[in-house]
Every structure is written in structure tokens, then in C-alpha cells.
Automatic annotation (TrEMBL):
This is Phosphonate ABC transporter, permease protein PhnE. It comes from the Bacteria. InterPro entries: MetI-like, MetI-like_sf, PhnE/PtxC. GO terms for cellular component: plasma membrane. Belongs to the binding-protein-dependent transport system permease family. Keywords: Cell membrane, Membrane, Transmembrane, Transmembrane helix, Transport. The keyword Cell wall biogenesis/degradation does not apply. The gene is phnE. PROSITE patterns: ABC_TM1 (PS50928). NCBIfam families: PhnE (TIGR01097).
Length: 280
């Protein structure tokens, strides 16, 4: 049998990749994760009795919550409006700050490579800390109220949008940039005339997603004293006013759905229905 035939025979008789024995590192990772989960179940004292009581407690909650209370509807609507305003103001601040941060973080627009590395590290740090933790930090620094929520949302949006803005800037085609540079345009003119216009659609889509995310997040920030409807929700659960809590939950659901609908409408108008509906 020739060498070529032996190689072909060995290839044919070799088991497929999914049938091969896993590497020891894969087995070690799986064992470690299983051990971690088992230790967690033991340490956290999770019992099946509590899980079995869950459906009956959930039924008692909905039984007590219906019908939703409407006596405090004006006050709750005011708190919901404050939540929306917090989300809008914080998102606008975060988006405005994200543009220069992204220009510094993008490899093709940063004035110096170490600046890009440092800015990406800052954005990663801002993004790694949850917005609820930022709210606790700002409640401690500026006090209880909407200002802490606005600052928490702005920082969270800056970390999120700054990264995606930078990635979009790095994807801008070189053609318009080189055309402007050939006319003697400086760096600022190139950014204003080529980079930012080419990234505008992506920036807008990311900003709208950030607004949706901020509205959802702002409803939770109030639970730690950062203003808005979250404080009302915490109070309702604390005093076991489940009918009021259900009213607040329904208000949050309506606002989030409206925000998503508004975002989809704006995206459709910007990108065009043909592009969004085109199959790949």
C-alpha cells in the first residue's frame, strides 16, 4: 500500500471531532464548574421545599394584586415621568461624552496609540461596573435623588456607547478619508467631514438602544435611592401593597414597550424599510 493510500485510509478511519476524547483541560474546566455549582447549592441552602412553595406564593401575590390600584395614579405617573426624564438626560449626556471618547479610543483616529489603549481601558472599566453599583456610588457622593440616577445612567451609557462608537469608527472605509487628506485637510476636518458622517447611522442606532436600556435601568435605580418609579415600587413591596406594585409594573411595561416601538420606528425611517426587510 502506498503512502498516499495509507494516509487516506487513516483519514477515513479517524473518528469525527465530536467523537474524540476531550482534552484534559476541557474536562478540568467542566469538573471545576460542576464542583462550583454543587458547592453553591450546598452553601446557599437551596431547598426544594422553598421551590415547591413558590407557585402558591406567586398565586397569592397575583390574587392580592388584582385589580391594580388606581388611587395613586397621578403620583405614580409623576414618578414615572421622572424616570423617563432621568433616562433621557443621562443618555444624552452619555452619548455626547461618548463621541470624543470613541475618537480617542479608535485606533485610526487616536492621536497616540497609548491614548487609545488608556481610553479603551477606561471605557471597559465603566462598562464592567453595573449601573446599579454606579447608582449606589453616586447616591453616596451626591445624595439621594434623581441626580444620582442621571449620573449613573450617563456613566453606564458612556462605557457602552463609547466602545461601539469606537468600533464603528475603525470600520469606516479609507476612501473618503484619503480623499479629504489629499486635499490637505487636517485631522479635525477629516473627522468632521468623513469619519463622523459615515458613522452617523450606526451612532444613532446605538444611541436609541442605549435609550431603551436606560429606561429599563432607570426603573431599577430608584430602588437604591436614585429617584424615579423604582422607589415607589420598593415601598409598595415593603408595605405589601401588591395592587399598587402591579400598577407600577404595568406602567413600566407600557413605557418600555413604547420606547422600543419608538426606537424601531426611528431606525426604520433612517435605514429604510427596504433595507430592514431585505433577506440575506
Amino acid at each position: 500500500m502506498s503512502i498516499g493510500l495509507r494516509n487516506d485510509y487513516a483519514t477515513v478511519t479517524q473518528p469525527p471531532a465530536r467523537m474524540r476524547r476531550p482534552r484534559w483541560s476541557t474536562v478540568a474546566i467542566v469538573v471545576f464548574l460542576l464542583a462550583l455549582a454543587g458547592h453553591g447549592l450546598y452553601r446557599m441552602n437551596i431547598s426544594f421545599d422553598r421551590l415547591l412553595r413558590g407557585p402558591s406564593n406567586l398565586w397569592n401575590f397575583f390574587n392580592s394584586a388584582f385589580p391594580p390600584a388606581t388611587e395613586r395614579a397621578p403620583a405614580l405617573a409623576s414618578a414615572m415621568l421622572e424616570t423617563i426624564e432621568m433616562a433621557v438626560i443621562g443618555t444624552v449626556i452619555g452619548i455626547v461624552l461618548s463621541v470624543p471618547a470613541a475618537l480617542l479610543a479608535a485606533a485610526n483616529t487616536s492621536p497616540w496609540p497609548p491614548v487609545a489603549v488608556a481610553m479603551r481601558f477606561v471605557l471597559t472599566t465603566l462598562r464592567a461596573i453595573p449601573d446599579l453599583v454606579w447608582a449606589l456610588i453616586f447616591v453616596m457622593s451626591v445624595g439621594i435623588g434623581p441626580m444620582a440616577g442621571i449620573l449613573a445612567i450617563a456613566v453606564d451609557v458612556l462605557g457602552f456607547a463609547g466602545r461601539f462608537f469606537a468600533e464603528r469608527i475603525e470600520e469606516v472605509e479609507r476612501g473618503p478619508i484619503d480623499a479629504l487628506r489629499s486635499t490637505g485637510a487636517g485631522s479635525l476636518a477629516v473627522m468632521a467631514g468623513a469619519v463622523l458622517p459615515a458613522s452617523f447611522a450606526s451612532f444613532t442606532a446605538t444611541s436609541l438602544y442605549c435609550l431603551e436600556k436606560s429606561i429599563r435601568g432607570a426603573t431599577v435605580l430608584g430602588m437604591v435611592g436614585a429617584g424615579g418609579i423604582g422607589g415607589e415600587l420598593t415601598t409598595a413591596f415593603t408595605v405589601r401593597a401588591f395592587d399598587t406594585a402591579l400598577t407600577i409594573i404595568l406602567m413600566i411595561l407600557v413605557v418600555v414597550l413604547l420606547a422600543e416601538r419608538l426606537s424601531s420606528t426611528v431606525r426604520r425611517r433612517m435605514l429604510g424599510a427596504d433595507q430592514l426587510g431585505r433577506s440575506i
